[in-house]
Amino acid sequence: MYDIAILGASGYTGAELIRLIAVHPEMRIAALGANSKAGQSMSDVFPHLRHLDLPELVTIDEIDFSAIDLCFCALPHATSQEVIAALPKTLKIVDLSADFRLRDSEAYAKWYGGAHAALDCQAEAVYGLTEFYRDEIRRARLVAGTGCNAATGQYALRPLIAGGLIDLDDIIIDLKTGVSGAGRSLKENLLHAELSEGTHAYGVGGTHRHLAEFDQEFSAIAGRPVKVQFTPHLLPANRGILATVYVKGEPGAIHGALRDAYASEPFLQVLPFGQVPSTRHIRGSNYCHIGVTGDRIEGRSIVIAALDNLTKGSSGQALQNANLMLNLEETMALTAPPVFP
Amino acid sequence: MYDIAILGASGYTGAELIRLIAVHPEMRIAALGANSKAGQSMSDVFPHLRHLDLPELVTIDEIDFSAIDLCFCALPHATSQEVIAALPKTLKIVDLSADFRLRDSEAYAKWYGGAHAALDCQAEAVYGLTEFYRDEIRRARLVAGTGCNAATGQYALRPLIAGGLIDLDDIIIDLKTGVSGAGRSLKENLLHAELSEGTHAYGVGGTHRHLAEFDQEFSAIAGRPVKVQFTPHLLPANRGILATVYVKGEPGAIHGALRDAYASEPFLQVLPFGQVPSTRHIRGSNYCHIGVTGDRIEGRSIVIAALDNLTKGSSGQALQNANLMLNLEETMALTAPPVFP
Amino acid sequence: MYDIAILGASGYTGAELIRLIAVHPEMRIAALGANSKAGQSMSDVFPHLRHLDLPELVTIDEIDFSAIDLCFCALPHATSQEVIAALPKTLKIVDLSADFRLRDSEAYAKWYGGAHAALDCQAEAVYGLTEFYRDEIRRARLVAGTGCNAATGQYALRPLIAGGLIDLDDIIIDLKTGVSGAGRSLKENLLHAELSEGTHAYGVGGTHRHLAEFDQEFSAIAGRPVKVQFTPHLLPANRGILATVYVKGEPGAIHGALRDAYASEPFLQVLPFGQVPSTRHIRGSNYCHIGVTGDRIEGRSIVIAALDNLTKGSSGQALQNANLMLNLEETMALTAPPVFP
Amino acid sequence: MYDIAILGASGYTGAELIRLIAVHPEMRIAALGANSKAGQSMSDVFPHLRHLDLPELVTIDEIDFSAIDLCFCALPHATSQEVIAALPKTLKIVDLSADFRLRDSEAYAKWYGGAHAALDCQAEAVYGLTEFYRDEIRRARLVAGTGCNAATGQYALRPLIAGGLIDLDDIIIDLKTGVSGAGRSLKENLLHAELSEGTHAYGVGGTHRHLAEFDQEFSAIAGRPVKVQFTPHLLPANRGILATVYVKGEPGAIHGALRDAYASEPFLQVLPFGQVPSTRHIRGSNYCHIGVTGDRIEGRSIVIAALDNLTKGSSGQALQNANLMLNLEETMALTAPPVFP
């Protein structure tokens, strides 16, 4: 039984980690850090977890990390790097923030607006897109969870870029995301009255920070710079990301490449050709559904990927990586089906 | 490993059973019956289950029940009694329909508008409100799942009636229910455009059939006829029931009685006095949250109970009962926390 | 053409006033006050109003009230009394806050937690439930808009109390309200991720401030103290209130009394006996639908009233009152049908 | 005062017409046709219209068209052409179906799967995109309402194609639409439990019939065949379309062209450069908001258009056209602001 700490337990990704670990046969939640809500119980902060026997929320300083086997950091960006820099250098860590996703410190500075405060950790971190970094993750001490949008887009595109199947200069990711990805922060545009019953785009024109991950990963695969277009939209739904990806390439070959690449992946489900996924059908689960359709214009294809931003897009991915790092069965506590309706 | 059949697998309660059993360590789904969709795969009917290795949907006639250890019937009312009457008399059955909830055949005829077609089975059936019929359920061959609204109201009220703590002639249950309780049927008022963004009452004035269960159970506990008022409202949400129950009785005594009655119940959580439950905090789970508050008018109390109609209100309850009938741990595959947000 | 000022134009009731007045043939918006957003345009604050030619938001001090014929105050509670105390004593004012609803200063102090800062204005104010204070409103200088929940409950109950048709000691108002009634404030429980997909009660047990209005009005009608039970619930919808009112009284007489009382009211629609209203069917409009049903228990009735909290419950009511105060047709700019679906 | 008939009054676009015409100073609803619900009152079919004094629903045969000045046909596709072929040839008609949108009978046969049954009417019909066919509409007897998606995409693109500002071979319209566009039909995927809380694409790959309108109109403007890519997605919202359009062209020139083209249009609002529209901000109104942003990749732009499918996308457009056909002020009864929140 491994003893687990979760830092940032009062946010949605922290709560999602607890939800998943609650039925994990080999993990025990030993410490919950949440500086701003220290002293409260989880049932005060998240009443849906009230039946669980959980430790009280404490400040991070109060945690004895020598008794911890693995630590999840679900802290805000920038905070995370400071906290992790101060943790024992032998502690296994899965970070869910954006702080360690970029390998290039200049790219980090450009996209996140300042120098990184823990460059040594950044150098050590492994990018946490499980299916593509599995071996590195197994050996890693520090794994950087991917952006939820970045994961969705990469599941749709990596095998196509790797296979040379699409025009690298004409990739458009039109993405729709549920609101929980924005966290539990008090912003006017996240109010029910503002967000429900409609949709809008944000970060239009290439300003969303998850583009940094697309640039890093796609360019590395292609061996040349690849820049995609990416427009996220906010959905009136709590969970779920749907990425509609427009590419120039043969639909049959594209479908085949995805099907082959993910044939033995437990969580990546490629639908029969022409079928489309729905975020409703992966809700609350670690599964990702991917569909491919050919356009009426020859040589063009639409790839659509759906996953739950809180599960496969962050906390589920984090647990999948933690399982690998602890040499456990990769799918442990992650195979529960989606909740529908 | 027990072999399980589910009849009526193409409805929401059928799908919910599969979702729960998918992670059950001692059950294996051996047959899925759905007459109208026989020949289809579950991934056609419920794409959220596509990753599971499930048998194809078949007609009920095609199922070899001699190989089945326990059968869930998630069929429509009236159909259920006909099907069950024809099943082997030794087969363990958990029925999720209304057909075997009422012990009195006249009450059945009155509320359901006709004579019962399987009176011998009706006589044999045990009412499936687990916490109050646990011993009978363990020994039962046929268990009748309760109405989802009926379960919610009973969790709020049974200990109060049993304890003589409230005025039996002045009980009002104002209930709010999500739409999945109405099933996957094509009715105009269940369309998104009709149902979202508002609420309305239905079955007003004492016409909802779940009243028959309240009458039967509460009268039996009290040893005299008890008639409650019950008004359900349809919520623009998919899952969840909130029953706001108005009673005349001392709030402290009422809270104490509920807390004591459910002290060792794994799924019934009585909140600290004055706290209120939310359907969002039990969503997708088998937990029921119950809160008690005193009114400003002395001697009056409000008891509020929340559960998920598809889980604790039907399929979760059914699985809890099946665990008992198969002599398994009662909570097996039912302890996953709610999905929030 | 009357020149209108709106103070508190950056909140939902302010925006709703603008929406309604935009098509008013006899009113022109001359000034918009919003201290915290002064200097901004309405299209920044409420983009749905961008096509209108509106004055810029200014501080209240910047408004020349000598050029204003009528002023709407849509300010927060407590702020409103301070602002109104400082306005010209001849200015016609419709206040939408809670500050002038209670005629008794002790009741005010008890429910709102402190002494009133403008007792002379309080003494002068007329309670703005149009249909019952029409003559006083016509002559008033200062009209106090009612609570939105308070309006809904009163439409269901006033004729029944006046007619001596119900037991005054056993009245229960179980109310469901959309979230816009809580305003545009940044509170965690108003976030989409927290509020959508479920419901919960709040202010349980007789603590909601709208009870002060029920107490004041119902006691005045009855000529004796009347205390109702009142439990509001938060709905996952933006607009709409549904009040389910449980009374002891003959359903036929109750229906008749409501039908007679409102026979010539343009906005109060009593449905045929046994029909139930829905908040979806009054959305965005100034109409209120009321239904009456008899319970299976003799001598008990359920009265259900539905209105839009932002329209008939606040800004629509305010405009209706302003029309009266300016000697205009009462229904002017208020007869647009609800928006459905 | 003009006497108006509405055929197909029991659907959403029929109800929306009534909602708008209810406050029209120069129109009176004289007849409501709805074959399947003939004999019912509108308040039975659409309770939100119960306060209106409307004629009873009748069969189309029962209507005396000699007393009608203008007839709206809100009938299903295919039905509409049969009905209109049988109406008096002098009757002014605004058709909301797809039957008369395509000028080329072969294109009609291809996209709609069969020969047209009223080719003479088809030849006579004017395409109802008001801002671009205003003069023809004024003189027309029969106006064909556009597809709601087709209108949205055209508002974003027509001035760009006309101005030669974009690459005609690389246009992608990723569109998100509310569910009311699918009408009041009983389909499983339109149920609240199926549609809420998520999104999916449909008609992927160039199969949606509104493409026929894009092809017809864009090719006519360009003077050469133009084929766009178009992927609609179903939103968990009742009203609203958001079209995110990806083009290759200079953002500044594109914004300028749209701003100039719509400078004097009352309903088409081009936002300041870089701002994005939201469907929430046009809800229930006849306004269309259009925003332009440049991508980080030089020479690429994103144009986003939002309108309400039931209003500007169908019934509001139809009324705008009817106003023109009757020589009334074009904006009459159409200037009410959107309903937000």
Automatic annotation (TrEMBL), chains A, B, C, D:
<dbReference type="GO" id="GO:0006526">
    <property type="term" value="P:L-arginine biosynthetic process"/>
</dbReference>
<keyword id="KW-0963">Cytoplasm</keyword>
<dbReference type="GO" id="GO:0003942">
    <property type="term" value="F:N-acetyl-gamma-glutamyl-phosphate reductase activity"/>
</dbReference>
<dbReference type="GO" id="GO:0070401">
    <property type="term" value="F:NADP+ binding"/>
</dbReference>
<dbReference type="GO" id="GO:0005737">
    <property type="term" value="C:cytoplasm"/>
</dbReference>
<protein>
    <recommendedName>
        <fullName>N-acetyl-gamma-glutamyl-phosphate reductase</fullName>
        <ecNumber>1.2.1.38</ecNumber>
    </recommendedName>
</protein>
<feature type="active site">
    <location>
        <position position="148"/>
    </location>
</feature>
<keyword id="KW-0028">Amino-acid biosynthesis</keyword>
<dbReference type="Pfam" id="PF01118">
    <property type="entry name" value="Semialdhyde_dh"/>
</dbReference>
<comment type="function">
    <text>Catalyzes the NADPH-dependent reduction of N-acetyl-5-glutamyl phosphate to yield N-acetyl-L-glutamate 5-semialdehyde.</text>
</comment>
<keyword id="KW-0521">NADP</keyword>
<dbReference type="GO" id="GO:0051287">
    <property type="term" value="F:NAD binding"/>
</dbReference>
<dbReference type="InterPro" id="IPR000706">
    <property type="entry name" value="AGPR_type-1"/>
</dbReference>
<dbReference type="InterPro" id="IPR058924">
    <property type="entry name" value="AGPR_dimerisation_dom"/>
</dbReference>
<keyword id="KW-0560">Oxidoreductase</keyword>
<feature type="domain" description="Semialdehyde dehydrogenase NAD-binding">
    <location>
        <begin position="3"/>
        <end position="140"/>
    </location>
</feature>
<dbReference type="InterPro" id="IPR050085">
    <property type="entry name" value="AGPR"/>
</dbReference>
<dbReference type="Pfam" id="PF22698">
    <property type="entry name" value="Semialdhyde_dhC_1"/>
</dbReference>
<comment type="similarity">
    <text>Belongs to the NAGSA dehydrogenase family. Type 1 subfamily.</text>
</comment>
<dbReference type="InterPro" id="IPR036291">
    <property type="entry name" value="NAD(P)-bd_dom_sf"/>
</dbReference>
<dbReference type="InterPro" id="IPR000534">
    <property type="entry name" value="Semialdehyde_DH_NAD-bd"/>
</dbReference>
<comment type="pathway">
    <text>Amino-acid biosynthesis; L-arginine biosynthesis; N(2)-acetyl-L-ornithine from L-glutamate: step 3/4.</text>
</comment>
<keyword id="KW-0055">Arginine biosynthesis</keyword>
